[in-house]
Amino acid sequence: MSYLNNPAIVMDNGTGLTKLGFAGNDSPSWVFPTAIATAQPSTTKKSSSGLGATQSQTGGSAYFGNSTSATSFNNLTSSALLSNNLAGKRGTEDLDFYIGNEALIASQSSSYSLSYPIRHGQVENWDHMERFWENSIFKYLRTEPEDHYFLLTEPPLNPPENREQVAEIFFESFNCAGLYIAVQAVLALAASWTSSKVTDRSLTGTVIDSGDGVTHVIPVAEGYVIGSAIKNIPIAGRDITLFIQSLLRERGEADTSLRTAERIKQEYCYVCSDIVKEFNKFDRDPQKFAQFIVENSEKTKKKVVDVGYERFLAPEIFFNPEIASSDFLTPLPTVVDHTIQACPIDVRKGLYNNVVLSGGSTMFKDFGRRLQRDLKSIVNNRIAQSELLSGTKSTGVDVQVISHRRQRNAVWFGGSLLAQTAEFKSYCHTKKDYDEYGPEIVRNFSLFNMI
Amino acid sequence: MLYLQPQNLLVQKTLTEALEANARGTPLILDRIISDFDYTTLHISNSPEEKALLWISIKTKAWLSISKCGPDLVGYLNTKYDDLAGVSTCQPEGGYDYTLQVDLKALQNDAVVQLSLLKVMTMSYPFQLAFNEFASLAQLPEGSNTTETVHKIEYRDDENVFIKPSNDRITVIFETFFQDETDKVFGKVFLQEFVDSRKRNRAIQSAPQVLFSHEPPLEISKLVSSRVSEKSRRFITFVLFPRHFQTPELQFSSICHLALFRNYFHYHIKCSKAYMHSRMRYRVDTFIKVLNRAKLDENEDGSEETTRRTVTGRKMVY
């Protein structure tokens, strides 16, 4: 069958952002918010025609696909069909929605309401999710789901019922050719194989996944997540941005918007090795202070924002949380250590040996190096203590933190890497299998055993 | 409504990004595979020598059958793209059917849309041939102005499009085949609606006439005779009259709509299934609410057995 030549589709639906693309590419084709703007039943008909017009003007070239002249057509059909059949009476509100960036624009008017179908990594609203998928497959990826295999991702500890729901939607609504659901942490491990530090392609390691809302530390042993040992840290990208913003406000900078703080975080922040030394370095060498120029929408006025200690202070809240928060005080390296200590003793060495970073908030320069140093000192202290107590010599534990270039979309990239292999399709469940056994078939997927 | 644009949004986005990056002086390094409907794969990559040169290659299942329709498909595409500044044709990349070379230094912004229409342009060739044949047939005197020509586009494994020009109309016939039983039912309702809505709604009288049948229409009965036995085959016929292809703009929009017909059709089948599913979920939720209301309050009669079991001994779960 000719669909065998089509590239597999890799979809990573996260709480904040959805990453869509084709297997074999080095970056996702589409990255947009996992948001859907649905029409509000009562107000749609009246105000919609005006909205359609304004949207296509404002959207312009920024987001492709704003020119869907959705709503003028809606008016026509609703009036024409009303008298004829029952479906007309109910209207076509279910077809009137936008996803992603378009949803954010559409929600600015009163006739659309915005919602995020995924909460804490798990799908909350299946109606919205189904429509989100249908639009992303047909409109954005332009693929016939019958011709493609799909690789979807799920968070660790996703209940199997959710998997079955996903399978029902993908096999029954979309008739997709084949489906594989992978755990995000495992894909992040696979993505780390691109790093030159990785010598053996094993699926054992600790994944530190830090996105916008929350940071997870997930131990994975031979492709299986050790669920009981997963730990969460309530510090992530958004907290860093807010911390920078508060520093800017304290100093009374010209522009203290969240957007500016975010840009500063992305462009100027780095992790230092010693916070006191770094303060001294800054005081001795004023060159270290940077200036960030805020470009206004009207290019006439330019605001200049000084960037000072927050360059290294902001990412520091991972390692010294007390500088920003008062309720969570455990540094990230300690949490990683606790996580690994909670795992079975025979996999701990492998977990220390392969700490993998994933997600946008781990992109700071030298983040991996600092984590490795701190983690190593914790481990070495423990070894020294146990040697003292037992009197025997330890063989030592190797701590290695791996950072690589694909960290930002590590989960998606790992998926792309696995889905382009020749044997990927043999690991998938096909439509035929589904028809034979029913949705419970997706409770188990065989793992990729990589060379 | 859920309207599918004729151009490939992803190609458009990728090229726009490449153009902007090039203007900033940091050309992107691209090696992207992009997919489109009906077994079409596009590949955008840098030329090996020069970063500002991009290659856009297309491979589509329909290519072989389209190139059989007329004498010079490549020539047709060349004429479409040669006028654009910065776009030139080159030898097809290995494994692909057709390749365009794009010079980002000279490329204009509006040419990006044209480039992202590459697949539709390929599909438009047989339509264009039919338009030309129609024009020449209409000139001929009565009696000699019929033709046996039928262009066949084999765009999927077992689905085809037939285009038959004649002296007063052009007939476009879609042969469809459903793999899924549910799709078949939805599809039938949809197709019937295509036929009926024209009768019912006076506002769309100028739309092309649509016919729907289980038997192959007479125009193509010779071409598909071998497969008549298959029950699930359906035929949708669009009859285009001169008013649908009088001007090049009209021609283009007709082609876009027809080329995307099957995708649009299947998209909407999927959408109606999604709608059905959301109604089912809603129904199940209300039933569960009713069941919960019937639940006995355990505090009132604590003496009774608290877990109830079904006949087979399984626990009742609310």
UniProtKB/TrEMBL annotation, chain A:
Gene3D superfamilies: 3.30.420.40, Actin, Chain A, domain 4. Signal peptide: none annotated. GO terms for cellular component: actin cortical patch; Arp2/3 protein complex. SMART domains: ACTIN (SM00268). SUPFAM superfamilies: Actin-like ATPase domain. It holds the Pfam family Actin. PANTHER family: ACTIN (PTHR11937). Belongs to the actin family. This is Actin-related protein 3.
From TrEMBL, chain B:
It is found in: Cytoplasm, Cytoskeleton. Pfam families: P34-Arc (PF04045). Residues 298-318 are annotated as: Disordered. This is Arp2/3 complex 34 kDa subunit. GO terms for molecular function: actin filament binding; structural constituent of cytoskeleton. Belongs to the ARPC2 family. The keyword Protein biosynthesis does not apply. One of its GO terms (cellular component) is Arp2/3 protein complex. InterPro entries: ARPC2, ARPC2/4. Keywords: Actin-binding, Cytoplasm, Cytoskeleton. Its main location: cytoplasm. Component of the Arp2/3 complex. GO terms for biological process: actin filament polymerization; Arp2/3 complex-mediated actin nucleation; endocytosis. Functions as actin-binding component of the Arp2/3 complex which is involved in regulation of actin polymerization and together with an activating nucleation-promoting factor (NPF) mediates the formation of branched actin networks.
